[in-house]
Amino acid sequence: MKIFDAHLHIIDPAFPLIPNNGYLPEPFSCDDYLHRMGEFSPAGGAVVSGSFQGFDQSYLLAALTKLGPSFCGVIQIPATTSDDEIIRLAAGGVRAVRFNLKRGGSEEVSQLDRLARRVYQLAGWHTELYVDSCELEALFTTLVALPAVSIDHLGLSKAGFTTLLRLADRGVRIKATGFSRVDFEVAPALRAIYSANPDALMFGSDLPSTRAPRPYSHADLQLLIDSLGEAAAAKVLYENGAAFYKISTR
After folding, report:
1. Backbone phi and psi for residue 164, each to the nearest 5 degrees, phi listed first
2. pLDDT number for residue 106
3. Which residues contact 206 (CB under 8 A, 6 or more apart)?
4. pLDDT (0 to 100) of residue 107
5. How far apart are CA 190 and CA 174, in angstroms?
6. Is the pTM of the predicted complex or chain greater than 0.85?
7. In whole angstroms, what separates CA 114 from the centre of its chain?
8. Which residues form the domain of 147?
9. Using CA atoms, how far apart are residues 32 and 38, in angstroms rounded to an integer?
């Protein structure tokens, strides 16, 4: 089955890394990623900046050069980033800006509305949030008014899951990633989100699964297929992500 991996990390110690709450991840190269996915070799994907990479852009552009044009980037930038720099990053394959409300390392949430609108108008980027769903009710009005938004890791917690479903119904995308990070049963959550909006769910491996209780395994991918059925899984595994990131892998 064709896969667009909407959430992966590349960790290259040749570029700046910043300890986050004392945590610094082990290296995970592009070759490590491709080897780890093995027989499921993705047709494309999105390399996502982590808290430990701060506002560094050099590692991401290098990774995208290595992985090729079917992969794109999700970057953390300060609100002071110039228009010219955003356009340069877009030309290098960046497709989204990330707000890491869970771990930090990104711009403050106070800049969410302004920066999200600005990068969308300049470069067509969407906005991604690493956020616990218990915080989503306070952000609901802001998020549904933005042109394009996604939320990582199924929203992480059962608290606020109803709000997550309301956001999916309103067009916010939800990443089917990090299954060991959540505090609820994954299969019924996948079905509920898909029922709310068949275009919302996007699969991601979350490799190398930094700080997760357990790393991604291909059993997670199989769980998604078993939970949704093959036709719906085809949308979640490939079509939804490739369309949202505006990447043609055909």
Report:
1. -60, -45
2. 57
3. 7, 8, 9, 153, 177, 178, 212, 216
4. 56
5. 10
6. yes
7. 20
8. 4-244
9. 10
DSSP 72-88: EEEE---TT--HHHHHH
The per-residue pLDDT for 20 is 77
**142: amino acid identity, one letter:** T
Tell me whether residue 96 is in a domain. Answer: yes
d(Cα 106, Cα 71) in Å, to the nearest integer? 22
HSE of 191 in the Cβ direction (CA atoms, 13 Å)?
8
CATH number for the domain including 215?
Answer: 3.20.20.140
- 238 has pLDDT over 60: yes
Between CA 243 and CA 231 the distance in angstroms is 17
Q: How many domains does the chain have?
A: 1
Q: What are phi and psi of 20, to 5 degrees?
A: -115, 115
What's the token pair of residue 61? Answer: 């552009």
Strand, helix or coil for residue 91: helix
Structure tokens at 189: 């959550």
Q: What is the pLDDT of residues 98-137, one digit of tens each?
A: 998 766 555 567 788 999 999 999 999 999 999 999 999 9
* Angle formed by the axes of helices 161-169 and 186-196, nearest 10°: 30
The C-alpha atoms of residue 176 and residue 218 are separated, in whole angstroms, by 13
Residue 250, domain member (yes or no): no
pLDDT of 249 > 70? The answer is: no
CA atoms within 13 A on the CB side of 10: 31
